[in-house]
User: Fold these one by one.
Assistant:
Number 1:
Amino acid sequence: MTPRPDSRPLSDASPRPARAGDRDEGAASAAPSRPVAPGGAAEAAQPAGAAKDTAEKTPGTSPSESAGRIPAASSEPVAVRQTEPLKDHAANWPDARPPAPRGSGDAPPVHTVRAAEPLDPGERQRLLHGSHHDPHAVLGAHRTQGGVVFRTLRPYARAVTVLVEGMRAELHDDGDGLFSGLLPLAAEPALPPYRLLVRYGEEPGVDEIETEDPYRFLPALGELDLHLIGEGRHEELWRALGARPMVHAGVAGTRFTVWAPNALGVRVAGDFDYWDGTAFPMRSLGGSGVWELFLPGVGPGALYKFDITRPDGSHTLRADPMARRTEVPPATASIVEESEYVWRDDAWMARRAERAPHREPLSIYEVHLPSWRPGLTYRELAEQLPAYVKDLGFTHVELMPIAEHPFGGSWGYQVTGFYAPTARMGTPDDFRHLVDRLHQEGIGVLMDWVPAHFPKDEWALARFDGTALYEHSDPARAEHPDWGTLEFNFGRTEVRNFLVANAVYWCEEFHIDGLRVDAVASMLYLDYSREPGQWTPNVHGGRENLEAVSFLQEMNATVYRRCPGVITAAEESTAWDGVTRATHHVGPGGFGGLGFGFKWNMGWMHDSLEYMVKEPIHRRYHHNEMTFSMVYAYSENYILPISHDEVVHGKRSLVSKMPGDWWQQRANHRAYLGFMWSHPGKQLLFMGQEFAQGAEWSEAHGPDWWLLDPAYPAAGDHQGVRDLVRDLNRVYAGTPALWERDTDPAGFSWIEGGAADDNVFAFLRYAADGTPLVAVSNFSPVVRHDYRLGVPEEVPAWREVLNTDAARYGGGGVGNPEPLKTDSVPAHGRPASIAPTLPPLATIWLVPA
C-alpha cells in the first residue's frame, strides 16, 4: 500500500513506552459498560521497559521476521514471551486491567483543535460498513496543509483526546463513532508519537482508557512473506498468517493477518472489543489477498474472529483458518496463542533424523485420544499412555486426527481448525507435552492428517470470503459425494500452500514423526464415487486428478526435505501406480511417484480378514486370499493395518469376527496376529484389539478396560492376548529378519504356500546378514504332528521363539519345547527339512538354535 502524498501515516519513530506514572497507582476503575479499546490495559499492566525485557527473538529467523523490514525509524516485530501462565479468554495481556481515570491535577493543558476536512461520504460509508480496503489511509495521523489530521473510529465513545508532545487535544465528534481534528503541529519529516485517551463515561475522567492507536503503525508483515504467499511457496505460512503476538515498533500487541482476496473488507472482532469489529478494520496488502492489522495490547489468550464483508455486501463472522488455538467445541472462536513450551526430546529428534524407517522396526498402536481413557487431558494422558505403549513394546502410536473439529462423532475426520490441536483435552502446549513424554519413552508419534476435504460449517472455511476460496469453484468438483463435505481446490496455489505448510507445521511445531494421509483415493480420481456425467475428464481425457497428484508430490517432497526422519503414509485403496515411488521417477502410466514413505495395504487387510471370518472347514476354498498379498508385496512400501475402520459400524471387533466358540475365537485372533507380525510390511493395531475386546469400538466410551479387571472371571483370557501382543513386539524388535528387509523381495521365501487342505502357511524371512526365521500358521483346529517343512540346510537346528498357542496366552500349550534338528530329508524343493508340531489355530516362529 502506497500512502497518498498528502496523507502520510504517522511514523513509528520513538514510540513512548508505558510508564508507571501513566496511571494512578491505586485500583483500576470499574470495567466500562462499552467496548474497551485494546492497548490501554496492556500498557498499564506492563512496567517501563517491559516490552524490551520480555521480548526475545524466535531462533531461526522466519521470512515474516526478516523480510520487508520496517524503515529505520521503526523496530522490527519480535515474538513476545510471557512470564506468567495464560488464562483462557483473557481479553488482553495477562492480568491486564483498565487504568484508573486521570485526575485533573496531573493532566497536560488542553489545546484547541481545528475541524478536519470531512470525509468523503462514500469513504465514510465504506469505513463504517467494513468495506474499506485501506483504513490506514483515513484513520490515524496524516500530515496535511496546516498541520496534522488525527482521525479515529471509536464506537460508543463519548470523547477522544489526542495526547501528543505534552498536549491534550480533544477531537471533534463527527458522529457514528468517528472523531477527528487538525492540530497545527510543526512540519517535521517524522511526526511525533501519540496516544489516544478514549472516554466512555458521561463526565470527563469517568471510564477513560489511554491506548495506542492501531492506525499509526506500518505493516508488520514483510514483502518477502507476501511474495511467497502469492507464489504458494511459504513453507512457514503459520508465521505469516493468523494471529501472532509480537513487539512492533516498541509496542506489545498482536498482528492479525488473513487471506480473503475477494472480500470487500475485513475487521477484527473479539472479546477485546465486545465482538464489535467496527473500530478495527484491516488493510489490504496490495494484490496478495492478505489483510493485516496490528492491535496493540492484545495478547495471548484473547478470543477473536474475522468479520468479513462479502462481495455482495453482507457480513460473515469467521474463525481464523490459521488459528493455532481454539475454544472448546461447540464454541468456535479462535484464540491468540504463543507457545511457551520447552522441549526435552533432543535425543529423540537427533536419532530420528538418522533413521531409515523402512529398515527398522515399526509396530504401531492406533489411538483415538479422546476415548482411549475418556475424560483425560493431554497432560493426564502423558502420565498413562507412554507407559502403557512402552510396556506393550509398540514403537509408535498413531493418533486419529488431532486437529480441531466441531463434531466429536466425526472422530476428527471433518476438520475446521487445521493448525490447532483440539481443545477438548487442553492447550497446544499440553499436546506438546504429551508428544514430548512419548518421545522420552522412545515412542514415535504419527498422526492422521486430512487434506482431502472439510465440513461446510458457516463459521469455518466454506465460502470463506463469500466465494469458493478453499473449495473448487465448480460445485460438481467441490462437493464430496460421500461425506457431505467440500473438497479442497488443489489447483489453487494459496490452497496448496495452506495444506503443504500445515503438514510441515505439525512436524516442526509439534515434533510429529509421521503423517498418515487420509482418503488419498478420493483425491486421486475425478470420478471417485461419481457416476458418468457427474465428472469432467482431465486435460488428457483421463480420470486422474492431476492437481491432487501434483499437490501430494509437493507435500511429500517438502516434508521429507525439511523434516529428516519423518514418514508419510497413504491410506490409498486402489492400485494407483507409484504411491511410494520417488516423485522424480516416472512410472509406466506417465506419472512420477507420489512420494509417500508407506502405503496402507488395504488389499491385505480385506483379503486376510475375508479368510479369517470363514469356518476352518471352508478356508481351503479361500486359501489364495492369504497368499495373494505376496504377489504385490514389494510393489509399494506397505503397512498392514487393522485400524479403527475395521471394528466399527457393524463390522465387529477383531476377535468377534472369528468363527467358533470363545476359545476358538481367541485362538484365531492370536494366530492371525502372529501371521500379521511375521508377514512382510510394518503393522498397525487399533486400541482394544490388543486384549481381544469383544464389542465394537465406540468413541463415546472407548476400550472396555474392565475386561482386564482381575475381579472379572474371564479377565485372564483377555490378559493372555495382551501378553501375546507384548511378546510379539518384543521378539519382533529383537529379530531383524522380521523388519530389516521389509521392502526387499530377497527377504522373503515361501516354504509352503499351497497347503489349502491343511490351512497351513509357512515361509522364511531373512535379515540383511542372511539370518533366517521360519513362520508357520496353522489355521485349522487340529494338531498337525511332524509336519515336514523344507528349510535352509546350513542351519543345524531350530528353536521355537514364539507360539500363539502357549498356555500363558490362553492356548492349549501344544508346541515344540525342544530344539528341532535339521534332517537331510528333502522337502519343498530344499535338501533339508524339519518336522515341527503345529498347534491348532496357531502361529509359531522358529529361529536358528
Number 2:
Amino acid sequence: MKGHILKAWTLGLALLPGFALGQTVLTRDPGLGAGSIGGSGTLGWSDEAALAPTAAPLGNSILGDRTPGAAPLQAVAPDADVTLPGRDAGGPPDDAATVLADTFVIQGDRTLIAAGGVVAWYQGARLVASRIVVNGATGELTLEGPIHLSRPGAADPEAEAVLIADSGQIDRRLQDGIIRGARLVLARELQLAATELTRTGNGRMTNLRHVVASSCQVCASDPTPLWEIRARNITHDAETRLITFDRPQFRAFGLPLAAAPFALTAPDPTVERRTGFLRPEFRTTSNLGFGIKLPYFVTLGDHADVTVTPYVSASRTRTLELRYRQAWANGVTEWNGAISRDDIEPGETRGYLFGNALFELPRGYRLGVQVQAASDRGYLLDYDITEADRLWSGFTLERVTRDKLFFGRTGNYHSLRDDENNETSPAQVADVIWQRRFTPDYIGGEGLLEWSVHAHRRPSDRDGAGRDIARASVGLDWRRSEILPGGVVGAALAGIDADIYRIAQDSRYDDLVARGDPMVGAELRWPLIGGADGVTHMVEPVAQILYSPPGRDDDIPNEDSRLIEFDEGNLFSDNRFPGWDARESGLRANLGVTWTRFDPTGWSLALTGGRVLRADPDEAFPDDSALSGTSSDWLVSAQYDSGIGLAIANRALFDDNLDMSRNELRLGWLRDDLQLSAGHLWLDGDSRAEVELPDISELVANVGWQIRAGWWGRAETRYDFAADRAQRASLDLTYRNECLTVDMGVSRRFTSSDSVNPETSVGLSVRLGGFGTSQDDLPGTVARRSCMR
C-alpha cells in the first residue's frame, strides 16, 4: 500500500473512537469531574510506557489537514429503573426470608429471638445485627446493634445505600420503620448521621431528623469534620435518588459559612445525569480579569441534554456558553458554542460554534458532519477553547471492510492565521478514495487497486493566486513474497499510477495534464534470531531495489506533497511523498538493518540504520531535503523500553560528514508517583531556500508527580530554544482527601500577533466528595485522615 495511504493522518472530522452505536443515553456530564484549571488538561495515561506527543495527535483518518476535531462523541446504556419491593416487579413474589445466627430461640407466643452474628436476606435487602427479636403476631422486628442494612431492591447493595444504626424497629419486609442513632451511607462516600431515622413508603422514603451530612472521616478524638452540611431534616428518595435538605447550613472546620432558609435538593452520588447546577469554576486572566462560570445542566430525557453556562468577569466580559448533546439508536451529536461582549474588542460581538455528528448508515457506512466557525482566533484563545488556527466544516462518508475501503469528504476550510489569506488558500475541498485489496489469479501475491478524486477551489479570481485544481487518479500495486534458501525472504514489487489534472486560473500550467508512472522492484530480507542465557537477539538486514522512469512533473503544481518526512516508517517505501502531486522516480536502492535485543528481565533495545542510494538525483526533492542527491542522509534511530514504564526513542539524520540535519528525542516515564512525557525536536535551517528557513529547536514536556500524600502536581511547557522564549507554560496543583478535591492552576501563553495578545490565566475549582464524579478517576493518592486509638 502507498505511503500516503499507510500514514496515520487526521481528517479534522470527529470520527472518534470509543463510540458504541446502539447505546442511546448520554454520559455523565464532564463538568462534574475535577480537571485542570490553569490551562494544561489532565493527561491521559495508560499502564504502558508512552512516548512524548511532540505534536497534536493526528488520529487514524486517511487524509491530514491538522484542523481540530470537535468534542468527543460518547453514549452509554441508560440507567436501570429502580423497582422497590412491594411493587409489581413482573414475577412471582418471594415471601421467604433467609436468616443465619449463632442461636435461635422461639418463645410460646411465637416470638423468635436470633442472636450472635445475625444475617438476614429478604428480597434483595441484607440485614446484619447482633440481635433480632421477631414479633410472632405482627412480624415486626426489634433490632439491636450494631446494625447494617442495605436498601431493599438495590442492584449493588454495597455500592448504593447502606444504613448503619445502634437500634431500631422495622417491619417484616425490612423496609419501613424507625431507626435510632442511624447513619445512611450513599455510594460509600456521603454519610448522613441522624439522631433518628424513619423509613416509609415500602422503603422508598428515608427521613432523617437533626442530621449532619459529610463525606469526611470523623474521629472520636476530633469529631469536627473538614466540612459538613447540617439540617433539621434530610429526606432521601430511593426511586428518584434525590436528597432534600431542609434549611441546610454549610460549615467548614466547624464554622458556619453559608445557610439557606428554604429546602434544597441534590442528587445522591449514584446519579449519572440530573438537571441542576454543576460545579462553578473561578478563572482569572490578564485579558478578561476575574470571572466565574456557573454551568446549569438540563436533561431532556435519557437521550438529550443541554448545558447553559453564564460567564461573568469583573466588568470585562459577558458571555453565555451553550452545549447541546443528543443520542439516537444509530447516531450521536454534540454542539458547543458561545457568544460574548468584552473589552478586548469593544463594541464587537464575538463567539464561536463547534458541532459534530456521527451516524451509522446501512451496509456499514458512517456519515460524519462537522461545523466549525469563530469570530476570530483570539476569541478561541482568550476563552480557552482551542489553540487551532484552521477550521474545517463539512461532511464525510466512509465504509471499511476486510478488503475494501471507501472514504469521501467535502467541506470548507477557514484559516484564522494572520499571515494567511483565505482568498488565496484552498477553501472548498472535496476528496473521494476507493481501495480494494485482492489476490491476483495466476501470479498470486497481493494486489491493491485504488481510485481517487480530488478537487479544491480558491475564492480569488486572480491568475495564479486563485488557482483551482481537479484531479482523478488510479493506482495499482502488487507484491509477492517467498521464502528462499537460507531463510532469506524475497519479494517482487510492481505498480502503476495514472493521473489526469484539470488546472484553472493559472496561465503557467496547461488546462489539462495527464501522466503515468510505472514502478518495478525487488526486495530481500534476512531475518536472523539467536541468543544465550535468556537474552534474545534479532537482526534483519533489508535491501530494496526500485525503478521508475525518471522525470520531473514541472507541468503539475505541487499542492499536497511539500512536507516530506524521512524516518524508519518510510525507509522502505516506494514513494515517500505524502500526497499525489509528486512521486519518486529513477533507479534507487533502500538499504537498512535493524537489531533488537530482548532481555529476560523485561527491557528491550532496538537500533535501526539505513539510507537511500540513487543512480541519479531525483529533482522532485528540494536541494535542502534529506532525500536529495545521489545518496540520502543517514537515518539512525534507537528505541529503549524498560518494561516497567520508561521508554526512550531518538531519531537522527546526518550526512557523510556527520553534519546533523535533524534530531528528535522523545521520553516517556510512567510510575504511580511520576508521569513524564517530553520531546525535543531540532531541525537545521536552510539559508539557500527561496524563503530562508530558520533553525528549529523546541522542547515540549508534560509532567505529573506525587508531591506528597494527597498532593498531585502537573506542569506543561513548550519552549523555543531558537527564539530563546517559551511559547506556553502551566502549573496545576490538585489536593485530594477522602471528602474534598481542590484544583488550582496558573498558565501563561507567550505568543502574540496582530490579533492575539499574551495571556496569563489563574483558575480555582472545589469539589465536595459525595457529589459528582468519583475521585478514583484522578491520578495520584488520596490523603486519608487516620484516627488514633
Number 3:
Amino acid sequence: MTALTLSTSGAATLRADALVVGLAKGAKGPVVAPGAEAVDKAFDGKLATVLETLGASGAEGEVTKLPAPSGLKVPVVIAVGLGPVPAKDDAYDAESLRRAAGSAGRALKGSKKAGFALPTESAEDAGAVAEGALLGAYAFTAYQGGENRLAPKGAKAGGNDAKLPLGEVVLLGGKPRDKAFKAAAERAVAVTEEINRARDLVNTPPNDLYPESFAAVASAAGKEHGIKVQVLDEKALVKGGFGGLLGVGQGSTHGPRLVRLSYTHPKAEKTLALVGKGITYDSGGISLKPAGHNETMKCDMSGAAAVFAAVVSASRLGLRVNVTGWLALAENMPSGNATRPGDVLRMYSGKTVEVLNTDAEGRLVLADALTRASEEKPDAIVDVATLTGAMVLALGNRTFGVMANDDAFRTSIHEIAEEVGEASWPMPLPADLRKGMDSPTADIANMGERMGGGLVAGLFLQEFVGEGIAWAHLDIAGPAFHEGAPYGYTPKGGTGSAVRTLVRLAERTAAGDLG
C-alpha cells in the first residue's frame, strides 16, 4: 500500500524522488497553481514559461516532467494539468484536484517517495489530493514477476520495480496538527485502501476468485475490522429456498454463496442495507455469450466488491450508522446441471420466475438478496450491479445509472455521486415496461422488452424489495471495468466504481442528512 504523510516541509527543502505541482490553463497561457510558489521561485519565476516551452498548457490530464533546478532537493518536477483557472474568489474543485493528483500518482510508479505541492487551502482540498494520489498510485501486480527458471542461480526473483506503486505520498501544506486536515487524510487512506482492495478483487482471475474464496476474503476482513460475517453455503441456500442463487450457480463446480456482513454502531439511529451482484465469472450459462464478450467477465462481481469495500470503510471510519452488506455470489457456467432457458425458479420470496435467458442472471441472484435484506426492515436498500449492456449503450463507459422507487432518494444518490466525483445519471422505471415480463407459466419472466433493457432489469428488481422501504439500484456496467488507457486516478481494469458513493451515503445517513 502507498503511504500518506502530511508534512509542513517546504517544497524547496523536501528530499524525495519527485515534486508534483499544479498547472492551470489561463486565458494567456499556463498558470502555476497555488502551492508551487517555492518551486516557481527556484525557476526564477519562469516555471510557467518553461513548461509552456515544453508544450504544457495546463489542460486536465496533462503530465509534464522536467529536471529540477539546483534550488530544490528533488531531481524531478512533475507538473499536472488542473484545467481552467477558477474564477476570481473560487477554488479549484475537488474532482480537478483528485484527477490531477491521480495522474501524478500513475506517472510516479516505481518511485519511493514524492511530494505533492498542489492547492490545499482546505481540509477538503487535502482529502481530494490524497484520494487522487493514492488511487492513481494503484497497481495490480499479484500475478506478475514470477521466478524466471532460466535466470542465473541466486538472481533476484520478483517483478519489475517500475510497475510497483509509488511508495509514499507526502502532502505538502497538509497541516498534520490540524484536526480537520488529519481527519481528511485518515478518511482518504481508509476509503482508498478499500477501493483498491475492491479493484484487486475485480482484477483477480476467476480461477482464483470464485464464490467460496470471495466469501473467505470477506470473513477474514470481518475478523480484522470487527464486522460480523455470515456465509450461507449450498446446503444453507437449499434449506432457505434461495432459488435464484441456486439456479444461477448450479451449472458450476463452484457452488454459490450468500454473504451477510454487518457493521453496527451502538449509537446508530439508521440502518442501510447494501446488496451487491457477485457473479465471479459470467459465461452467460446455456445462453452463452458470443466470442469477444467473455474475456472481461471476471468483472461481473464488481457490485459485490463495491458493497464489501463500503461496509469495511464504514467500520474503519466508525460511522454512526448500521450498515449491512449482502454479497450475492455465484459463477454462471454452462453444463449438464445448468439452468436452461424455459426453466422456472422459485425464488426466496416465494415468487416463481421463468428464465428466458440464462445470461440475465444478475437480477436473479440480486432478487434473492433483496428479499432477504428487506426482511430486516432497513431504512433504505441500495443494490449495485454490473447488470446490463443496455445501460452502457445508454450512458457510455464512465457513467452509472441510478433507478429508485422513490424520486427523492434517487435524487439524493445522484447528488452524492456527483459530489464525490463519480459520474451518474438518474433513470426512470416506466410502469408500462413491466408488462413485457409477464409469463404464461410463472409469476414473472427474467426478460422483457429489448428496448429499455436496463430499465426492465430495474423493474424486475423492484418486485423483490420489501413494502415501504426506500430502494435504489445502481447499474455500474459501464464504469466498473475500464478497458482503455488509464486516465486521472482511473486505472486499466477494475475501478472500484460506486464505493465512494456508498461511503458518502453512509456518512450522510449517519449525520441525519437523508431524513
